[in-house]
Amino acid sequence: MRVLAVETSSAVISVAIVDEHRLLAEYILNQERNHSMKLMPIVEEVLEESLLAFNDIDVFAVAHGPGSFTGLRIGVATVKGLAQALKKPVVGVSTLDGLAFNLAYAQGLICPIMDARRAQVYTSVYRWSENGLKRLEEYLAVSVEKLIELLGKWDEPVHFCGDGIFAYRSIIEAQMGGRAIFVPPTHALQRASSIAWLALERALTGDTQTYWELQPFYLRKSQAEQRFGKR
Questions:
Q1: What sign for the dihedral angle of Cα 5, 6, 9, 10?
Q2: Is the same domain home to 113 and 218?
Q3: Could you tell me if 66 and 10 lie in one domain?
Q4: Residues 85 and 120 both lie in one domain
Q5: Domains in the chain: how many in total?
Q6: pLDDT reading at 223 higher than 90
Q7: Whole-model pTM above 0.90?
Q8: Angle between the 69-86 and 35-49 helix axes, to the nearest 10 degrees?
Q9: In the chain, what's the furthest Cα-to-Cα distance?
Q10: What is the pLDDT of residue 221?
Q11: What pLDDT is stored for residue 32 in this prediction?
Q12: Spatial CB neighbours of 50, under 8 Å, sequence gap ≥ 6
């Protein structure tokens, strides 16, 4: 089974193809380029370099959120369009699950933090077990201070990843000291290969969606929606 996954939930744009045995190809660009213009050419390039055609893909996957409202819409709309045209199933994977999977086999807690602006982060808490990645908390949009308070429930190291580590590292280090472990930049940001592998695991058990069932997962309302609600 081949899975093609796209990741456009942040400044990073990434496309990957995996099967049950290997990562066939991955493209990552972290330059805050125009996702709407770059995504399909990257998809086509990844397929071409893998000597594959669109019809060779069995499942299309996407990081469906949380993340950038515009980025999520672009990624989800692209996957929905491909799945509809090719009559293939889809899998929507949490952006946070994908980030946590970057740290597979880490000892201790795994805590992805995405900069959600307005002094908040998108986050959750995970642990790697014999059965794979296990989420210990709900998906959250909270302040870093609230997150640090939540992490006080555990007395063990916490591995942080996600673009939030670049904005909030000093605050976390000041309050958590040596418990806080920050991954290198190569593992910190979103990767389509992580989304693809998590989607593959689900697809092999039959846990897929139709294109019309796939929707972005925003976690919180956009700033425009909040302003409209106040009116």
A1: positive
A2: no
A3: yes
A4: no
A5: 2
A6: no
A7: yes
A8: 40
A9: 54
A10: 63
A11: 74
A12: 17, 24, 25
- Cβ atoms of residues 195 and 203 within 8 Å: no
Task: Report the run of H or E that residue 42 belongs to, with start and end.
Answer: helix 35-49
Range of the domain at 126: 103-188
Say whether both 176 and 210 belong to one domain.
no
Q: What does the angle CA 183 – CA 36 – CA 5 come to, to the nearest 5 degrees? A: 50
Q: What is the tens place of the pLDDT at every residue in 9-56?
A: 999 999 999 999 999 999 999 987 689 999 999 999 999 999 999 999
Nearest Cα to Cα of residue 107 among 33, 181, 27:
181
| Structural contact between residues 98 and 66, judged by C-beta atoms closer than 8 angstroms | no
Q: Do 108 and 183 have their domain in common?
A: yes
- Ramachandran region of residue 37, left (φ > 0), alpha (ψ -120 to 50) or beta? alpha
Contact of 162 with 169, CB cutoff 8 Å: no
Rounded distance between C-alpha atoms, residue 61 and residue 27, angstroms: 15
